[in-house]
Design a protein that fits this description.
Layout: H1 5-16, H2 18-21, H3 23-32, E1 38-43, H4 50-54, E2 61-66, H5 82-93, E3 98-104, H6 108-112, H7 123-129, H8 133-142, H9 149-168, H10 172-180, E4 184-190, E5 197-201, E6 206-209
Helix pairs in contact: 8-9
Length: 222
């Protein structure tokens, strides 16, 4: 039994309010399966809730969350690869048409790239964080000499999203979908201080404010 009664009370509220109000839609999802349009790859950070920040309903998003919203390059001979498995299922089985890689400000994973991590208690984490090394290297080489550490972190968070897009495109079925125009990739940064989202514009090589009126599809979109 859970010791946290808040969670139990929360489920009680959910069952007696949201579930009852949306019972038909939820039963339809149970009986007819899920048909999400988008794969959302986000950070495991408890402050970043995909359905909350996009105001989407159950069945709208296929969500993968991990430390740092990282995507490891395609490697079919890896022993275990939860994120790759999720990408594979979303694209080849669920036939999603959109993939969103969503980073966020004040990301602990990105901050950890600039700190010493003990090997023993964080053996898996240290290896996983190496997926952020390219972003760290480029951030350090391109930022102004007198820039603050916070500015360095904000830049690294954005560059990491761009590199994760590059890694995502190493998956053959993702690359094929993008080339055929059936799949669009989006790079986002969610600001946890104000709720705003910026998207990566590959033509401008920059992040821009995400406003519905500004969205224009590109080769792999925003």
């Amino acid at each position: 039994m859970l010791k946290n009664s808040v969670l139990l009370k929360g489920n009680d509220v959910f069952r007696n309010s949201y579930f009852k109000k949306h019972e038909l839609e939820l039963i339809d999802l149970a009986q007819n399966g899920q048909h999400p349009k988008a794969l959302f790859i986000g950070c495991a950070d408890s402050r970043v809730i995909p359905n909350l920040i996009t105001q989407t309903a159950p069945g709208d998003l296929f969500v993968l969350r991990n430390v740092g919203n990282f995507v490891a390059p395609y490697k079919p001979d890896a022993d275990y690869h939860a994120t790759a498995s999720g990408i594979e299922y979303a694209v080849t089985a669920l036939k999603v048409s959109e993939i969103i890689i969503c980073g966020h400000t004040h990301c602990g994973a990105i901050a950890s790239l600039y700190t010493e991590i003990e090997d023993a208690p964080f053996v898996h984490t240290k290896k996983w964080l190496s997926l952020g090394d390219k972003a760290k290297s480029l951030a350090l080489s391109s930022i102004e000499v007198n820039a603050s550490h916070e500015k360095l972190l904000r830049l690294t968070e954005k560059l990491s999203v761009v590199y994760q897009i590059e890694n995502l495109l190493t998956y053959p079925y993702v690359k094929k979908g993008v080339e055929e125009g059936s799949l669009h990739i989006h790079g986002w940064i969610y600001d946890i201080e104000n709720g705003n989202i910026e998207y990566y514009d590959p033509d401008a090589l920059n992040f821009k404010s995400l406003e519905v009126s500004n969205i224009v599809e590109t080769d792999y979109d925003s």
